[in-house]
Amino acid sequence: MGRIPWLRANQMLWPWIRARVRLIGSAALGGGVLAVLGVIGLLLATPYDLAFVSTQAFSLGALCFGFGLLGWSGSVLAGSSVENAQRYLDTGMNWSEADSRRAMARIGGFGFGGMVGVIVVSSLWA
Amino acid sequence: MASKWFVVKRLLLLVPVLLGVATLVFAVLHISPGDPARVMAGQRATQEQVEMIRQETGLNDPIWVQYGRFLVETAQLKLGESYVLKPNQSVMSILKNSIPTTIELAVYGQLLGILLGLPLGVLSAIKQDSITDHITRIGALTGISVPIFWSGPIVIILFSVTLGIFPTNGRISQEFFLSDTWLFFGHELPRTGLITIDTLLLARYDAFMSAVKHLVLPASVIGFYSMALISRMMRSSMLEIIRQDYIRTARAKGQGERITILKHGLKNAFIPVITVIGIQFGTLLGGAVLTETVFGIEGIGMVLVDAIDVGDYPVVQGTVLVFALLFTLVNLGVDITYSYLDPRIQQ
């Protein structure tokens, strides 16, 4: 089985996909749950209407998503250069492109989950 | 040579970068206080008029609908029209006029930084721990540490106000404008938009000299900052290279010091510096916000500051997106150059 190239590729591909789905999915789930609780909590505890609360909550989620996405793509684009520059400048920091990429993927996933959570809870509430 | 796949991969990365920037700008503008409908209608408008504008512009729609519409329009390069800054003028045309100004400033600043930074870095490395090295390192540290909003006014006070050598602000003397529009010697600017090139193309050397004089101070301020980082990087990189075995071998074979450094050392030491130059150029474009404000130059940075000041959301969104696009395109160019010099990076 291992001799068939596409199967061998698949054997490597699935763990790769699973690890990334777990990384982003768990963060998205967290973001989604927090968004749902946040919107419901704000609607019950404050005098603001649904439009205002969902706008603010969605914007916060979008902020996280945008930051994460930009950070992730920035890390992929320029991460190795920054890593190199730090090494040459002897900054003594342990910042690495791979760590940054993972952290940003989590933040982006969290934000995306939050955005979806706000859409779901607002649609149901309305 | 950079492989096609490498370039395509880098180009594909532009999509998440721009999506991330667009999302960030959209989110920040919606969280920040201020009502765009009120800004559009004006402070004296009635509530009914504000509501009407809100209805017409879709600001009443749920935020995710607005977000989707914003992304679709941005992807089609429909950046909207200015509300307040230049009413009814498209954001694209405003940016078209101001982008060349910023690019010109950043290019001259970067050139100055490279021309000074590279030789100083090499000199500092080959004369390690000498007085030259110490002076260069102190200069580099000063350049990195001093912010543009401080060094800008200092050079204006020194060279413009006290010594009167250079003008304080603007891109060219007012006498070269026929009116306060973009008309310039009967030709509509921008031709290329780069004022030093335009004046040369029109063979107006007096105007060219005026443009150069106006550029010296802002470009020097930017260049000094850039020079500092480039020389620091060049020094570190050069020091690492001249300790390599092949340099020792070249010396052992009796090759002259100058040839050894210039022929064998420089090219290899230059590779990591290229990436810094690229990142630095992107930073310079961003730094133009400060420089243009301090020196009163109407580039994209000043447009951004003015747009934020009056709450002109479409202009803010468009400007930030263009900044991001320029930054990533510069990085792409650097990556391709880097991969040409060091093909290992493509793997």
How would you concisely characterize the structure shown here?
By secondary structure, chain A is mainly α.
Descriptive account of the structure:
The complex is a heterodimer of chains A (126) and B (347). Chain A has three helices and no strands. Chain A is an all-alpha fold and 126 residues long. In chain A, α1 packs across α2 (50-88), α1 (5-45) packs across α3 and α2 (50-88) runs antiparallel to α3 (97-125). The termini of chain A are far apart. Chain B is mostly helical and 347 residues long. Chain B has helices at 4-12, 14-31, 36-41, 47-57, 63-75, 91-126, 131-145, 148-162, 195-201, 205-242, 245-252, 257-295, 300-310, 313-341, and strands at 183-184, 187-188. A two-stranded antiparallel sheet of chain B has the order 1-2. In chain B, β1 (183-184) and β2 (187-188) form a beta hairpin. Chains A and B meet through α2 and α3 of A and α2, α5, α10, α12 and α14 of B. Chain A: Keywords: Membrane, Transmembrane, Transmembrane helix.
User: What is the terminal-to-terminal distance of chain B?
Assistant: 13 Å
Strand order of the largest sheet of chain B: 1-2
Number of strands of chain A: 0
Percent in strands of chain A: under 5%
Q: List low-pLDDT spans of chain B.
A: none
Low-confidence stretches of chain A: none
- Percent of residues in helices of chain B: over 70%
Which structural traits does this protein have?
heterodimer; A: 126 residues; mainly alpha; 3 helices; flat; B: 347 residues; two-stranded antiparallel sheet; 73% helix; globular
Q: What topology emerges from the helices and strands here?
A:
The complex is a heterodimer of chains A (126) and B (347).
Chain A: H1 5-45, H2 50-88, H3 97-125
Helix pairs in contact in A: 1-2, 1-3, 2-3
Chain B: H1 4-12, H2 14-31, H3 36-41, H4 47-57, H5 63-75, H6 91-126, H7 131-145, H8 148-162, E1 183-184, E2 187-188, H9 195-201, H10 205-242, H11 245-252, H12 257-295, H13 300-310, H14 313-341
Antiparallel strand pairs in B: 1-2
Helix pairs in contact in B: 2-5, 2-14, 6-7, 6-10, 6-12, 6-14, 7-10, 8-10, 8-12, 9-10, 10-12, 11-12, 12-13, 12-14, 13-14
